[in-house]
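input
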Amino acid sequence: MELTRTEILPGVWLSHLRTDKFKTACLSVTLLTQLRRETAAMNALIPYVLRRGTARSPDMEAISARLDALYGTAIEPVVRRVGEIQCLGFFASIPEEDYLPGAKGVLRKATELMGELLLSPATRGGLLLPRYVDSEKEKMLEAIRSRINDKRGYALFRCIEEMCCCEDFAVGRLGGESECEAIHYTKLSRHYKSLLQSCPIEIFYCGRAEKKQLVSFLRDALMTLPRGEIDYEIGTDVRMNALEEGTRTVKETLDVTQGKLVMGFRLGESMEEPDTAALTVFNAAFGGGTSSKLFANVRERLQLCYYAGSLVDVHKGLLLVSSGIEFDKFEAARDEILAQLAAIARGEVSDEELMSAKMGVASELRAMTDSQGELEGFTLTQALDGLDYGPLELAELVNDVTREQLAAIAGNAECDMIYFLQGGGSPADKEDEDAQD
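output
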């Protein structure tokens, strides 16, 4: 696989990964904008509204007919958050013509349709259709409101919301409920046009097409893209230290049968020159898998929880620990999680633990090369971080991570927020426990 990155239009970058490995090609078009509470919901809604119809194919039935004619090509809206950058656009899976006897122009026509979806929506009087906006708004409101149904995810969201209450990172990828309710088709239409003029755009392709041919297709598909002053100042505010001198604790009560404990840490000085390989191995050793300290000690040896795991956001500089516990185990689980982090800070990581963490991370990185979706997400985040190495190169860097690096990361971590979802609320809030818990 050979990855090249080229600016094909003003502020439009193509990451082209030439490979014969897959029977389908993938193509994504992603607009990048700053995550802000007042605009996050509008940004998230736009690709779903655009997917409802174009000037040429004004409804989903007509679009589906065109996709069927392209041998089952699929194009879906995608909304993501990378740090404090909101990413919105489309992801397409396109059958390779080598496996379609007699088929011609599949990639060109799919690229053309992607361009239509982005630039030529179904409109009335130059405005997005009210019925499409209102319909998709209701679906998104339902998705935002349903966060509470997944108590594990809800607790993680609430911890971030409280910990980052003074930062844009507190906003979910779909935005807030009140901001979504306030969306009107006229305002959304203006905002959509503004995004097209100002957003940097990342395009990713993985497949058999040569770069020169693909660039020609893309330039034709995007020839009507309006460009004004492009906002290259988007980025993520990384805060090194906790908001207050002491750790903040928030307890919320719902009618749940299992407590959800989430602990949020700032990674401090480790984010001055973040080492992705070391941060990823640290997470694996601390709570990222079945050989981690949290799993082996907090869950298995001491049986303080039903599950315990950690994740590191290398863009925002956060370490998050999530655990399901009995209500009366709050203090014991909290203290033991802190104790396991302190153990790593003292360098108490065995050779077996270090090797297992490194092997697990390297294996996951190598497995990325078997998934176009994983490759697309990895390449996008690398572009946003200004990095140019692929997953295989990162896997090699993982092998060089040392125990001392893990100790430094753990020692720099500062607990900012402890969130605990406990029982005793309204029966209407009662959850269905996950089988994995």
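quick obs: The two ends are 40 Å apart (CA to CA).
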